[in-house]
Amino acid sequence: MITRRDAITLLLASAGGVVARRAKAQPARPIPRDAPNILLIMTDDQRYDAMSIAGNKILRTPNIDRIGLEGMRFTEFFVTNSLCAPSRATFYTGLYSHSHGVLTNGSGEVNRNQGGLRSDQITFMHLLQQAGYETALVGKWHVRSDPAGFDQWIILPGGGGPYLDPPMTVSGGMRIKFRGYADDIVGDQTLFFLQNRSKERPFCLLMNFKAPHRNWIPAARYAHAFEDVDIPVPRTFDDKFEGRPEALRKTDMAIADMPDFKDRGVPETLPREERKRRNLQELVRNYYRTLLSVDENVGHVLEFLDKNDLAKNTVVVFTSDNGFFMGEHGLFDKRLMYEPSIRVPLLIR
Questions:
Q1: What's the domain range around 27?
Q2: What is the pTM of this model?
Q3: Where are the alpha helices (DSSP H) in 115-256?
Q4: Domain of residue 169, CATH code
Q5: Per-residue pLDDT tens digits for 91-108
Q6: Beta bridge partner(s), residue 152
Q7: CA 14 to mean position of chain CA atoms
Q8: Do 213 and 159 contact (CB within 8 A), yes or no?
Q9: In a domain, 241, yes or no
Q10: What is the structure's pLDDT at 6?
C-alpha cells in the first residue's frame, strides 16, 4: 500500500532525477482507494523568496505560507535548467535536459525544431496512472508534446498565453476561449476537477499557474497594490561583471534595457541609470501583484480540501519551474546560473 511518505518520496525522486531510471525496474502495483491524493501546485518564474514564509516583507502570501507552516519548507531547492520547458520536463521525468531532450522553450527561428518529450519517456504521472490514480493537469504545460500520463487535461497555450481571456485546449484537442483572468480560470478549473473527480480512485492533480511570468498583467483587483512601496535595490545592482566571461557581460538581460514599462512611465528617453532604477520598481511591483492572484486561488483550493474532508489524505506540494532576477547583477529574467534564477520554493504538507 502506498503511504503519504511514499507519495512524497515519488515526487521528490522525480524532481531529483531518479524516477525514470527506476520505472522499468519496478512494475506498478495496484493502489487502494484510500491511498493519499496528490496536489502539485507549480507557478511560473517564482523565485525562492517571493512569499512571506521566506521572509519577504512586502509580499504577503498567507495561503501559500499555510502549506509550509502546516507541513515543511525546503530552503535549498534548486532547478538544473532555469528555463520553463526544460525545467518542467526535468520535474516530470526526473532526467536532466540532455537526457529528456527538451533543451529550449521551442520558440523562434533557432528553436523551431525543438521537440517535446518522446513518447517512450516515463513521467511520475505515468507511474501513478498505471498504479490506479486518476491524473489531471490544469494550466500551463509548455512542453511541446501533448500531455501524456493524464486521464484529463486542460492547458494554457504555448508558454502560458495571455493573462486576460486565455484560450485553453482540453483533452482531445478542442480549444475553448475563456473570459477572465488566467489564474482565476486555473483556480476555477482546478475546483471543477475536484468537484467532479472519481470517488473510487485517489487523484494526482497538477495545478499550474501562469503567474508570475512576464509580461505582467495583474488582475484588476490588484492593479494598484504596492503603489506606494519603495522596492529595495539589491546589493549587486551595479555589478560590472569584472573578471567574468564576456558572454555574461553581453547578455541581453540588463534591467536598464527592458522595454516592458516604456508605455507605463519609464520612457526610453530617460537617462540609463534612472531608467534602470525605475524599471526595478515596476518589475517587482507587477511581479508581486500577479502573485496575489496565485495566493488567493491557492486559498480557494485549500479551503475546498478542508470542507470536503480531503485535507488529511492529500499531499500538497508547492513549487516553481525556475526563479527570476529582480535587479541582482543588474539583470532581469532567468537562464543564468545565479541563485535568484535557479533557487525556487518548495513547500510540502
A1: 4-231+282-348
A2: 0.91
A3: 124-130, 182-196, 246-249
A4: 3.40.720.10
A5: 999 999 989 888 888 755
A6: 136
A7: 16
A8: yes
A9: no
A10: 67
Tens of pLDDT, residues 230-272 = 999 999 999 999 999 888 888 999 999 999 999 888 999 999 9
Q: What is the C-alpha separation between 210 and 222, in angstroms, rounded?
A: 16
Q: Number of structural domains, the chain?
A: 1
The residue assigned the cell 529582480 is 326
Find cell 498567507 and name the residue: 62
Lookup: cell for 123: 513521467
Tell me whether residue 50 is in a domain. Answer: yes
7-42 in b/e burial notation, b at 16+ Cβ within 10 A?
A: bbebbbbbbebebbeebeeeeeeebeeebbbbbbbb
72 within a domain of the structure (yes/no)? yes
125 within some domain: yes
Instruction: Single out the residue of 224, 208, 206 nearest to residue 288, CA to CA.
Output: 224
Do 212 and 287 touch, CB atoms closer than 8 A? yes
Query: Cα(111)–Cα(107) distance, rounded to whole angstroms?
Result: 5
Kindly state the DSSP code that residue 36 receives in the 8-state scheme: P
